Amino acid sequence: MRPPTPSQTVGPFFGYALPFAEGGELVPSGHPGAITVHGVVYDGAGQPIPDALLEFWQADSAGGLDGGPGSMRRDPVTGTFAGRSGVGFTGFGRVATDADGHWTIRTLTPGPAAPGTLPYISVCVFARGLLHHLYTRVYLEDAAGDPLLDSLDADRRATLVARPEPHATYRFDIHLQGSEETVFLEFG
Amino acid sequence: MSTTPPTPEPQAVIDAEMARIQTDADKALADGGQEELQPRRDYPPYRSSDLRHPKRPLVAAREAFTELRGPVFGVTDVTELDSDLTRQHHGEPLGERIVVTGRVLDRDGRPVRGQLVEIWQANAAGRYAHKRDQHPAPLDPNFTGTGRCLTDDEGRYTFTSIKPGAYPWRNHQNAWRPAHIHFSLFGTAFTQRLVTQLYFPGDPLLAYDPIFNSITDERARQRLSAVYDHDLSSPEWSLGYRWDIVLDGPSATWMEEGR
Questions:
Q1: Interface confidence (ipTM) of the complex
Q2: Residues of chain A contacting B184 with CB distance shorter than 8 Å
Q3: Cα–Cα distances in Å, from A117 out to A57, A73, A112, B38?
């Protein structure tokens, strides 16, 4: 096995490079199946983090994981981002937190990607001060029978389950540290 | 917001902390410990890491079907000009023109094909085209410092740019980041995601930098250093650097050929 290239922090200045137009709009506003997922990223002192970058990857509503190109379409005329086509589903989103540490995506409820698991949205967290990104998952509902959730005690389990709000909206806060620290994952 | 100490600490304080951690890491390795292939998330000399790293151990992900696949990108997501950072404005940027190229591989040495590579960097004076960077170095109206491309069938990427300058920051008093280019990469699986920084060989600032030295293994640190390659330099045009990248994490081996 070749040794990997080490990670380094995304730093404070990714904002003019990585975010793209409609990065959090995996489906267009008004899409009949759209759900909104949002939350705040907190540090170990309970302060919101205004310079985090979150990426989302998920199955489509039928559980398909093929994704598709076109998340960050470029306009060859102007050399800027053109926005998504509004057709098809890429399964990928990217948003920076705002000055309140808040983020929002609009997407589809992921379908079951594998038997014997609950559907979830995979999240990758980057921030200044974070030397190596972190993975977590947003589960939109809690139920018995998911191998990861069932491996956690109740307090820890709760950090992975979004809280339903009115109008097909879910709240999912991320705590990088502290008593409510989110469960972060490693892959063997 | 965050608690800034009233007087910035001198470099010597950071150096002493870094040296202590390095000595302990070297001893652990000499005593038969595992190579630390990645930076430490908890690295006190990098002050911002203090409140931004988890204190509980990571949890082994069970049944990672979703994470073993990942986003795909295509010709709509990049334009040809995106990989040449010197041609994004009407005029020529100031600085030393460079070409940076290399291959993106998985840990088994297989090329990562058709995947997205994104970069961003400061200009030749060390200033980012970002409103939050207000330090007194000039902006260059002909340089933004962002680029992207898709890897080819051999996993190769190539960017034309200018060599970034050193960048002052406020981790401690008289803190300077070594010249670096930020890289963002995707593999065939979301687990292979990588954001990192390329450094230039022989940069004297590397020894003083807590971000670089958060990687406590000397060989692992060297993997972030590009190699000057004279065969990549072009007469009266540009200097060439080579940097191969190996993505960590399990890859989507079972469907790699299909992509």
A1: 0.97
A2: 10, 18
A3: 16, 33, 7, 30
